[in-house]
Design brief:
Shape of chain A: globular
CATH architecture of chain A: Alpha-Beta Barrel
CATH class of chain A: Alpha Beta
CATH superfamily of the largest domain in chain B: Aconitase, domain 3
Oligomer: heterodimer
Structural class of chain A: alpha/beta
Strand order of the largest sheet of chain A: 4-3-2-1-5-6-7
CATH topology of chain A: Aconitase, domain 4
Strand order of the largest sheet of chain B: 4-3-2-5-6
Radius of gyration of chain A: 15 Å
Distance between the termini of chain A: 31 Å
CATH architecture of the largest domain in chain B: 2-Layer Sandwich
Largest sheet of chain A: 7 strands, mixed
Number of domains of chain A: 1
Number of helices of chain A: 8
Number of strands of chain A: 7
Order of helices and strands of chain A: EHHHEHEHEHEEEHH
Largest interface: A-B, 40 and 51 residues
Helix content of chain B: 25-40%
Chain lengths: 166, 426
Amino acid sequence: MAIRGHARKVGHHIDTDVIIPARYLVTTDPAELAKYVFEDLDPSLRQRIGVGDVLVAGENFGQGSSREHAPIAIKGVGISCIVAVSFARIFYRNAFNVGLPVVECRDAHARALDGDELDVDLATGVIRNVTRGEIYEGTPVPEFMQRLLAAGGIVGYVRAELAGRQ
Amino acid sequence: MGMTITEKILAFHAGRPEVRPGDLIDCTVDFLFANDITAPLAIKEFEKMGVGQVFDPDRLAFVFDHYVPNKDIASAQQCKITRDFVAAHHLPHFYDVGRSGIAHVLLAELGYVVPGDVFVGADSHTCNHGALGAFSTGVGSSDLAAAMALGRLWLRVPESMKFVFHGRLRPWVTGKDLILTVIGEIGVDGARYGAMEFAGDALTHLTMDERFSITNMAIEAGAKNGIMEPDDLVLEWIRPRARRPLTVYRSDPDARYRDVREYDVSTLEPVVSAPASPGNVVPVREAAGVRVDQCFIGTCTNGRIDDMRLAAKVLAGRTVHPHTRLLVIPATPAVYRQAMDEGLVKIFLDAGAAISTSTCGPCIGGHMGVLADGEVCVSTSSRNFVGRMGHRGSKVYLSNAAVAAAAAVAGKLVHPDEVVRETVPA
């Protein structure tokens, strides 16, 4: 599965409170949550995100709370994929569960600039910076997580599991 | 080769003789829970799964703690989703306003988690229960929904790290200061994906309340779980309340750890996490003098009876500084009642504190004490990220209950010694 989009860069240790502040956790609607995404990180960031953009982050992206509203809000605003140096573990699971692909890559954050056009290959973890003609080697998305994505997230996975039992 | 306590619990629940870090396992879960924010999303996903029934209604609790009593129409509508689901599915373990408390404190208090469990909650501080010798971890709503449907959850076996504490803590130094010190040292991702195992003679002198505040904050170092081997105190504490049989696991002497760190805690000072990261830890004396607008004593980290007692020791006969507000929120009705029976509530009221029914409210900047731009709060909670307790221009210092109480009296950050020594009780 390949994804192409423009890089939108954020920093290290981006926590779920700045992704979607708890004061907005009174709905589960992706469009409603997307209105407030990254509000406490940078109130203008949301306006700069275009549909299909690839979020490029530093270390420990998504630290903090278990709120699945965080990947839902990011997906809701149009981000197609997140490439980060590393992810906090609950966020990592939540992203796949809601069908938002994420890739771990050490170099993309250090080398790509905001706005660069990126090609992300989930199976190999290879990220091609089309703008700069560079290749960044990421970690391939684990096979199990690829199956989750192919099933459309955990809901599809559970449905298949239950069908298999009958 | 031996296994750690975490590996042993996971191996048993995966039906395997042994597991190793990195193994992907499918494991049975002993108990599940979600709160008023995470449950509606879990219910929505659960309903899409088309399974109809919860795998075992006796192994699921819904605990309302974040936006209760409902703060506005949106939170009321959101809670109604769960209330309706509970009624439709005849779920027996539902805790609503009045009988509810902060989930992690309440569920442990009521014996829903026992040593040896795999306990899963749709709330990141579910790692709280590791102090009982259980594997306890937080997940998102969809994972919780999957576990509600299947009674199982896939997990990656974490690498274990061991933190060994030696010595006796000085006055005003608590379990909270131990965990903040560790996070300050290893960083907010120092234990990412790992299991934090806490050990050492210093722990044996800590009450259950203090131990819970240590495992509660394992998530703030990025860990999957925090855990301690159950000792006599744990067994004494859990036996009268346990709802299920318990199993005591201990790490093998030849268990493998990614890292083992030893601490002499006898010289430790009370510490704070300065804005805006739990990993930004300094002794309170180094932050002394910072003007404080609000102090908050409560939450799943430090809203237990020990915290109430510690705060009361500082506040007895003293009053909250004129430019400072103090909020005290006992974590559960039982903590509230105990604080009342011991005369602590009177001490808080006399000091000028606002006391509230159990809620997470202020910790997440949700309600009951939201901060304005530029305001500073000293809080016994676990997170001080930008905007966590209100306006993105507000600032939060994390501390133990004595430091928060002392700051309330002094109107600024101080070592509790200075307040207790310098201001004679009225």
